Amino acid sequence: MKYSKTLKVVVGFAAYSCFGSAAVAIDYQSFAGIRFVKIEAGCFLMGKDTDLKESSPVESPQHRVCIEKPFYLGETEITQKQWETIMGSNPSKSKALYKPVEKVSWNDAQDFIKRLNNQEEGNLFRLPSEAEWEYSARAGSKSLYYFGDKQKELTTYAWFGDEGYGGASHEVALKKPNAWGLHDMHGNVWEWVQDWYDPNYYQSSPEKDPKGPDVGQYRVYRGGSWVGKNVNLRSSIRYSGLPSSRTGDIGFRLARDIN
Fold it and tell me: Taking the complete model, does pTM exceed 0.85, yes or no?
């Protein structure tokens, strides 16, 4: 699938992680014209300690989380072209086929997923949980960003406000991916996840496959955007909004269950 002229499409290649010398085999698959990366099961430390100056209380306490089943996660945020194919219209403020769709609410994302699942005759597509999202974003890292702690390196991996990229989102997959082959997990547009938001949820979150609170008023979105400052693109940052809210810097990427 083509995102832009600069995207190299490579299936099943071995990439060297910036967190060590071991090669990481990246398994790409395409479903309904959307490219996915297989995310293997595993455990990680979610959130940040309160003594880290960039963190906020809602990211604490740092806690161990285990994702018990492998799943697929979109290589990029859902593009406007993909949205138009399913929905027949484009709500985005900054329009271009290979930019991420934005000005979509959490409810709108659910409508897209319902239509896509009906088209594919199954219920495999969904939003990732907040835990799945952070596990995938970190890609084995324990640092502020998936590539390390140096904010000056962020321009290689993300579109964000501090660098004057302003004005609009950008085409997906123009920046370097993380070690697991996922693009734009930092910046470009915020990404809705499935969970209800509770600022104190980490205090009682289960270790295995946490799904967030059962009820709530707000839904979680993650990852930062082209508007945000570099400190708001960290892997652990948590924000929330009404499920009906739409802005020009929030989109989403899909997860897909493995048969």
Answer: yes
Nearest to 141 by CA among 214, 44, 255: 44
For residue 204, what are the CA distances in angstroms to 63, 122, 136?
10, 33, 22
**Domain residue limits, the chain:** 14-257
Look up residue 108 and give its DSSP letter.
H
| pLDDT tens per residue across span 134-144 | 999 999 999 99
Q: Is the pLDDT of residue 12 over 60?
A: no
Phi, psi of 204 (to 5 degrees): -130, 10
> What residues have CB less than 8 Å from 163, skipping those under 6 apart?
155
Q: Are residues 49 and 191 in contact, defined by beta-carbon separation less than 8 angstroms?
A: no
- Beta-sheet pairing, 250-252 with 190-196: parallel
CATH architecture, range 14-257: Alpha-Beta Complex (3.90)
Query: So what's the pLDDT on residue 53?
Result: 81
DSSP class of 231: G
Strands 28-31 and 42-46: unpaired
Residue 224 tokens, joined: 């930062």
3-state secondary structure at position 125 = strand
Residues contacting 192, CB < 8 A, separation 6+: 104, 106, 109, 127, 219, 220, 221, 250, 251, 252
The tokens describing 209, both together, are: 């496959």
CA-closest candidate to residue 61, choices 213, 228, 207, 218 = 207
87 confidence band (pLDDT: 50, 70, 90): very high
Torsion sign, CA atoms 236, 241, 243, 248: negative
What's the residue count for the chain? 259
